[in-house]
TrEMBL record:
PANTHER family: TESTIS DEVELOPMENT PROTEIN PRTD, TESTIS-EXPRESSED PROTEIN 30
Protein name: Alpha/beta hydrolase
Superkingdom of this protein's organism: Bacteria
Organism: Gandjariella thermophila
Domain KANL3/Tex30 alpha/beta hydrolase-like: from-to ranges: 24-163
Amino acid sequence: MTRRQVRTPHGPARAELHSAPEGRAALLLGHGAGGGIEAPDLVAVTWAARDVGVHVALVEQPYRVAGRRAPAPATQLDAAWLAVAEELGEHWFDGLPLVFGGRSAGARVACRTAREGQAVAVLCLAFPVHPPGRPEKSRHAELDEVDVPTLVVQGDRDPFGRPRAGHLREVVTVPGDHALSADVDGVARAVGEWLDRVLRPLD
């Protein structure tokens, strides 16, 4: 495991790099709005990805690196994410296809930046479809705008809602709430199988 600081337009971000023995692709994973890269589902997915030959970069947004708990505005999050993806793509994962992913708010960033960042697939853990109790405030359009293979892993009791499956988008439901900590083995299994399948045509 290697840690690397990356300059972005909104301050330094940090990437924790976990290399697979023979990398076929790289998965960039972002954290939730109020949490960090140590979330149980992110840790489980890191190991699952490495087991199928995918390098992983756990990305800490600049506001977290600076010690702030409140997230930055979406435009800043997206710009910082794209800066990290560009830096790692050029200097660490040179020539490898990139998969964008994250949990909760990090999943939203992955969706919004997938096209500009030329991601080959998107992984969403606990995508927050709407604020709890506010289904009229839907963020489903962010998912619908993704035009590459997408996996959403969602808890069956997630108060942030449940996304719809769609063209190129698979939804896997596991026991638990928004934390996805009740069945991390199930989360890891779903992600590992999906990564192996969607990356096979690129091998």
